[in-house]
Amino acid sequence: MAKEKYLECGKAVSTHGVRGTLRFECYCDTPETLARLRTLYKKEKDGTFTPMKVRAASVQKQMVLVSFADLSSVEEAIPYKGTTFYADRADIKLGKDSVFIADILGLDVLDFETREKFGTLADVITPGGREVYVIDDVNGGQFMIPAVGEFVKKIIDDGKDSGIYVKLIDGMREE
User: Please, what is the average pLDDT of the chain?
Assistant: First the structure.
């Protein structure tokens, strides 16, 4: 599966002040990750991506305030409200054993020891700030797995052995 060059990183939900700053809902693992990006990309109707240089960015609670080099007034910023912005995957440095959620959605979820297929990863949610994997079960329905080392033993996001290898406990998956 080819990996997308551009990944959703946040959505401009409102303006902030009168100098063209936008308030972003963060889609990154932390607001600091979004605030470190120097270029964000706007997806055009034809599917191309237009780069927008970030003049300044800062974290405010769980939101990120972003000022773009080409926006200097609230009137110029208003049309961007509701716009989802993207980051070039090359601009985000991943830690060891980290993956982009976009790269693992749709992967098979397999037993770590037997390789039995339990289902496919449908979504990643973050109740209480912790990642939880939502799996579409091969037998129908869904079940969830906390994304912690106790249950998620290995993730391979590329190649013939790609999958999420897990160790489940009794009751985690209704049979």
Answer: 92
Question: Do 71 and 78 contact (CB within 8 A), yes or no?
Answer: no
Summarize the confidence of residues 11-38 as an average pLDDT: 93
User: Quick count: other Cβ atoms within 10 Å of Cβ 124?
Assistant: 14
SS3 of 116-169: the string is CEEEEEEEEECHHHCCEEEEEECCCCEEEEECCCCCEEEEECCCCCCEEEECCC
Pairing of strands 108-111, 163-166: parallel
Report whether 92 contacts 33 (CB < 8 A).
yes
Output the six-digit token pair for 93: 């440095």
Question: What is the C-alpha separation between 114 and 110, in angstroms, rounded?
Answer: 8
Contact 164, 133 (CB under 8 A): yes
Whether 27 and 11 have beta carbons less than 8 Å apart is answered as yes
Count other Cβ atoms within 10 Å, centred on residue 21. 23
Whether 21 shows a pLDDT value over 90: the answer reads yes
